[in-house]
Specification:
heterodimer; A: 11 helices; 3% strand; B: Rossmann fold; 2 domains; 17 helices; 35% helix; globular
């Protein structure tokens, strides 16, 4: 059985923390990473994220995820070199001109990217999908129950498709003959029984849910753990990072426009503000209690 | 008490009623077994008891059903769920959550129970059902028997007074089914919950049955103690005494053989230096414990799986270089789920699909189709959507889509799963007739009785190897499993 979830069941302080502060952490960080363009700010936030990843004991998997992001980053750099912006040429190879504006912009974009990947890997690797669904369903997303069933049924449907292929082969359908298009075409008949099986299943599931009282009225929650004071405080602090970041941004700290020719600079005041911004996120390292 | 009073029901769009003027009561704490041929209205009866009919299915209803005084026409199924629970056939399609704990909580959440009560009940019932062991496991990774137990535990945790079970063991192998049925009996005695059980493994239930209702063509034609009902069931072919009817002559030379076959899933060895010889014109059965690799072995015989070591020879030729599809004219294969074979608009088109893929000359088509439909007694369903057929008929329809290619060898993976005695007898007759026409059958099953009555040769798969199981021994095992006392 292939492991469906990327979730990693580890015992770390971050894993022990309630899912809700973690979700707020990731969302606030994500918002800021979209807003902020200054490389220094992004770099300091990135350090915090990696510290949290390390504390979650999922560093290896996160780096594995980032390996793929490197390709995207290379593409961003290639693109900014091929379509240069600005006039400050630092390398001229005739057709290809590399400008400092483009390079700085690409660097800032990549930092954003890695920051977002890092933040979301905390979510994927440390929050069990069931927990995530429970929380989302509490916000009244009815379709979340559907999503949960989809997660549950995925392996069944995958197995179904395997045995349908077997059945087809045994009736003379050649799957691995000819070129790619021919192979893809040969697989088309698999879709029909798969679809019909899934439709039959969905009716049966609906029936079973009804017979177990789904839709009778208000439901209660089995996993209704109240937020502790610590969780609540964390949520408030993570949320507060957003207005603080926005205010600083409006005041001109963190919104460096590299395309317009702004240089990369490290001012004392910026180091201070970026550090303060990152400190808003630091409490997550305290984690949850045993 | 559940009271069904002169109840009739017709599905929307249909003309004939499925239930005809049925009156049927279930008292608190009772254990009722409902039997009947497929298509007699058993499943429909189940669904009428908890209001799925008419709420979920629509259709037209006359007469009433009341559950502890609540009329099912006015109370929805979801509202009735705290009084009457239901367990369905396919364990796969009634579990909605990802792990066992959530699954057990699901129904109670729907009843809006307080958290404290839910925790207590999850605790109690998981221990009572002995499912704590796989409490946190991902549900799709559980076995069929485990899943069905979880389904039952989840329903019982809602503390209904009545539980209706619609052929709950039909997807389980014999041993697991027997354990499940015994457990149901224990549940009825210890927890006092009334049980209405639809079951085709009648022999298994006779040990504890106190009341059996027999349905035929939408009516309950007999309802009483096993002693009173059994003679009728015997005359209708739903239960029969053991009798071996195998034609032993006419085996020819070896047509299929496996030499030193070894196979492993990852680090787990499944087959180890396995040897197999299959003669022409025989019915060979392979038996063995759950998960011992029976299906894996079958899938090696026509190249659906390739061995790590060793070889398979078909008519003396190594199949290593042949694809499954290219062998399909010689060797037919019917997997466990007949639905995987049925997707065309009509049964005839289903057969044409196979003929087209096997590149059989067009002139032969109609003759082959007539022959297949006749052997399998499906002529009248030629223009029916095959998925509308009953379970036993679907198994035969899928078989038709395989034998229409007239393979020399037929491979069947658990062909009797979910079948009642009547359908099994029918299948056995079909295999016998195919044998007479020169076809060899290799089948895998848990059903000792079926092989004791109908197989030429029985092989036992254990520790990755096959060994001969003498027919006398199989017959003993079969009789053990039946234990008809009446």
């Amino acid at each position: 059985m292939p492991l469906l979830f990327p979730y990693q069941d580890k015992d770390s302080r971050i894993h022990r923390l309630d899912a809700r502060p973690k979700i707020v952490f990731v969302l606030s960080l994500f918002l800021l990473s979209i807003l902020i363009s200054d490389i220094l700010y992004l770099a300091i936030l990135f350090i915090i994220v990696m510290l949290v990843v390390a504390a979650s004991k999922v560093l290896r998997s996160t780096l594995g995820l980032m390996k793929y992001t490197v390709y995207v980053a290379l593409f961003v750099f290639a693109f900014s070199i091929l379509v240069p912006q600005g006039s400050n040429v630092i390398l001229n190879l005739g057709l290809i001109r590399v400008t400092s504006e483009s390079l700085l912009f690409a660097t800032s974009m990549c930092f954003r990217l890695f920051l977002a990947i890092g933040a979301f890997s905390i979510l994927t690797f440390t929050v069990h999908p069931d927990k995530l669904l429970q929380i989302l369903s509490k916000f009244g997303f009815k379709s979340m129950t559907g999503l949960s069933i989809a997660t549950r049924m995925y392996p069944t449907i995958a197995a179904d498709s395997g045995s349908i292929e077997d059945a087809m082969k045994a009736r003379g359908v050649e799957f691995d003959e000819g070129n790619v298009i021919k192979k893809a075409k040969a697989r088309a008949p698999v879709m029909m029984p798969l679809l019909l099986n899934s439709m039959d299943r969905s009716m049966e599931i609906a029936e079973a849910m009804e017979a177990r009282g789904f839709g009778a009225g208000k439901r209660t929650q089995y996993f209704d753990t109240p937020l502790s004071l610590r969780d609540k405080s964390m949520i408030v602090i993570f949320l507060a990072a957003v207005p603080f970041g926005v205010a600083m941004y409006v005041l001109g700290h963190g919104n460096t426009d590299y395309i317009a020719g702004a240089p990369f600079s490290i001012g004392n005041i910026d180091i201070l503000i970026a550090t303060v911004e990152a400190l808003f996120f630091a409490p997550i390292l305290i984690g949850g209690s045993r | 008490m559940i009271e069904m009073d002169h109840f009739s029901f017709t599905y929307g769009g249909a003309t004939n009623p499925v239930l005809k003027d049925v009156s049927f009561n279930v008292k608190e704490g009772e254990f009722v077994i409902v039997v009947g041929l497929s298509g007699s209205g058993k499943s429909t009866l189940c669904r009428a008891l908890n209001g799925l009919i008419p709420h979920f299915y629509g259709g037209s209803v006359t007469g009433t059903v009341t559950v502890d005084g609540q009329d099912t026409r006015t109370s929805s199924t979801a509202k009735l769920a705290s009084t009457i629970g239901m367990v369905f056939q396919d364990p796969e399609n009634q579990l909605v959550m990802t792990n066992v704990e959530n699954e057990m909580a699901f129904g109670m959440e729907n009843l809006a129970l307080a958290k404290k009560d839910m925790t207590e009940r999850v605790d109690y019932y998981s221990r009572y059902f002995d499912i704590e062991r796989f409490f946190k496991r991902f549900i799709p990774e559980l076995s069929g028997g485990e899943k069905q137990k979880v389904a039952l535990a989840s329903v019982l945790a809602m503390k209904p007074k009545y539980i209706v079970l619609d052929e709950p063991t039909s997807q389980l192998d014999e041993e697991t089914a027997a354990l499940f049925l015994d457990f149901l009996h224990q549940l009825n005695r210890e927890q006092g919950v009334a049980i209405v059980l639809i079951e085709h493994r009648l022999e298994r239930c006779l040990r504890f049955a106190k009341r059996i209702a027999f349905m035929e063509e939408g009516r309950i034609v007999a309802d009483g103690t096993p002693e009173a009902v059994l003679p009728l069931l015997k005359s209708k072919g739903l239960i029969a005494d053991f009798s071996r009817q195998v034609n032993e002559d006419g085996h020819s030379s070896i047509i299929l053989s496996a030499r030193n076959l070894s196979f492993a899933y990852g680090q787990t060895p499944i087959l180890q230096n396995l040897m197999l010889d299959v003669m022409g014109n025989e019915v060979v059965a392979i038996v063995g414990a759950n998960g011992c690799g029976k299906s894996t072995l079958l899938r090696h015989l026509n190249g659906l799986l390739r061995p790590k070591q060793g070889s398979v020879e078909l008519f003396g030729k190594d199949i290593a270089k042949s694809t499954t599809a290219s062998m399909a004219r010689e060797i037919g294969y019917l997997g466990q789920n007949p639905n995987n074979y049925l997707f065309e608009e009509t049964l005839q088109k289903e057969l044409e699909f196979t003929l087209r893929n096997l590149k059989i000359a067009k002139e032969e088509w109609s003759e082959r189709m007539d022959w297949a439909l006749e052997v399998l007694d499906l002529e009248r369903f030629r223009h029916t959507f095959p998925r509308d057929l009953s379970c036993g008929q679907r198994e035969r329809a899928a078989l038709a889509s395989v034998i229409v290619g007239k393979p020399k060898i037929l491979i069947l993976d658990e062909p009797t799963r979910g079948m009642d005695y009547w359908n099994k007898a029918k299948l056995a007759a079909i295999l016998e007739s195919l044998k007479e026409q020169g076809m060899t059958t290799i089948l895998v099953t848990h059903d000792y009785r079926f092989v004791a009555e109908h197989a030429n040769r029985v092989l036992l798969l254990s520790d990755g190897r096959l060994s001969d199981l003498p027919i006398e021994k199989v017959i003993l095992l079969a009789k053990d499993a039946i234990c008809v006392e009446a």
